[in-house]
Write a structure and sequence with these properties.
It comes from Hahella chejuensis (strain KCTC 2396). This is Ribosomal RNA small subunit methyltransferase E. By secondary structure, the chain is α/β, with parallel strands linked by helices. It contains six helices and eleven strands.
């Protein structure tokens, strides 16, 4: 936890914050914070700043909050991502959010098993938990938009053209020859499942304006590809 996040509803009219959950436990057990310490905090979808720890015990922590710093600017990137395997979902969401991605579409693909869509990791509460962990890691407060689309063809033909309008659109695929694109403005990036999209899926994406590129001949896990791509493009 590199920043302690809280909602506007948790902040009292006097600017005080009382915590009784894992955040208080983190202050107590990990940071070993004591009364008088300053803690980096942020209001979800709001500003960041510091909070003076007023008191802390085994049951609660009480802080006085001062917000005066804008959240970091988001990446001008829309990520179109074939739904990862359930055991990867937690790590993928956290790492993607920590890197500043604010628009994520989880989509179906031929290589995505139907059972993946039944994972509890896609429940709203689980997504929010992992989004907040990603924001805490990346020192950010702005929640991303996460959309789910279970039908590939209708999404690509009917909705995706509007999503990519005004942006460069690229699809990462192991058999493409072009190297990673240069970022000159808004970017839409499509990443398939392990092994990539099928030839049919790549063709459908190219028909609406996507261009293919590769990170190399190695077949990488999605949880490795996304940080590698974003790091190469933006960091």
């Amino acid at each position: 936890m590199n920043i302690l996040l809280f909602s506007a509803e948790e902040l009292s009219a006097s600017g005080q914050l009382t915590l009784t959950d894992r955040r208080a436990e983190h202050l107590r057990k990990v940071l070993k914070a004591q009364a008088g310490d300053d803690i980096r905090v942020g209001q979800i979808n709001g500003e960041m700043g510091t909070a003076r720890l007023l008191d802390i015990n085994d049951e609660r922590a009480r802080l006085e909050v001062n917000l005066n710093v804008e959240a970091p600017p988001p990446l001008d990137l829309t990520l179109i991502l074939a739904l990862p395997r359930p055991k990867m979902m937690r790590r993928v969401i956290q790492s993607t959010v920590s890197l500043g991605v604010k628009r994520i579409y989880l989509i179906n693909s031929y290589k995505v098993e139907k059972s993946y869509w039944q994972t509890p990791w896609l429940e709203a509460s689980s997504l929010r938990e992992n989004v907040l962990l990603g924001l805490e890691q990346g020192v950010d407060t702005l929640l991303p938009e996460i959309h789910m689309r279970k039908l590939f063809k209708p999404f690509v033909e009917d909705e995706l053209p509007g999503i990519i309008a005004g942006s460069d659109a690229w699809v990462a695929h192991p058999t493409s020859e072009a190297q990673s694109p240069q970022v000159n403005g808004p970017l839409t990036l499509a990443v398939g499942p392990e092994g990539g999209f099928t030839p049919y899926e790549v063709k459908k994406l190219e028909e609406i304006g996507f261009k293919g590129f590769t990170l190399g001949k190695r077949i990488l896990r999605v949880e490795t590809v996304i940080p590698a791509l974003i790091g190469k493009l933006y960091l």
